[in-house]
Design brief:
Layout: H1 3-6, E1 10-12, E2 15-17, E3 21-27, E4 30-38, H2 45-60, H3 63-67, E5 73-78, H4 81-93, E6 101-105, H5 106-112, E7 120-121, E8 138-141, E9 146-149
Length: 153
């Protein structure tokens, strides 16, 4: 996709998102539309909360289903596992943070790869890291605006 066409911005009052990249990934037969955010600066709970807050407004709107159906997953990449843990613990304290946001560190991605079990789901901060293909076990509830495990049959 040409760069000019991959730009995405969403403004809602003072909150705005402008991801570093927008894309689609196919892994294990699963189509994963995503936004990519490289975050070398937000390292402490206050900065992390400020970085996540605009995504809360975005996912509470109808924009995700219109942008990249059925919804895009946001992938945050931070420098260290310690910072990834700060993202997970901060998200667990934020109300209504059951959003399709994953975080990983450069360390985890170097060790396990982008498709490996290197992504922490912020909608369930106590969950072990996921591989992107495991997103097929979850769905976005557009009515309640939250991620949830899908029923298995």
């Amino acid at each position: 996709m040409p760069t000019a066409r991959s730009d995405r911005a969403f403004n809602l009052g003072e909150d705005a998102i402008a991801p570093d990249a927008v894309g689609h990934l196919l892994t294990g037969g699963l189509h994963v539309p995503f936004y990519f955010e490289h975050q070398p600066r937000a390292r402490h709970p206050r900065g992390v909360a400020a970085r996540l807050r605009p995504y809360s407004g975005y996912y509470r709107s109808d924009a995700p289903a219109n942008d990249q159906p059925p919804f895009p997953t946001t992938l945050f990449v931070v420098d260290t596992e310690e910072v990834a843990e700060t993202y997970a613990s901060t998200a667990s304290r934020m109300t209504a943070m059951a959003l399709p946001i994953l975080v990983s560190s450069r360390e985890a991605l170097s060790c396990k790869g982008i498709l490996g079990r290197s992504w922490r789901p912020l909608w369930d901060a106590d969950s072990p890291p996921l591989a992107l293909r495991e997103l097929g076990a979850y769905g976005w509830d557009g009515l309640r605006r939250r991620m949830h495990p899908l029923e298995t049959r």
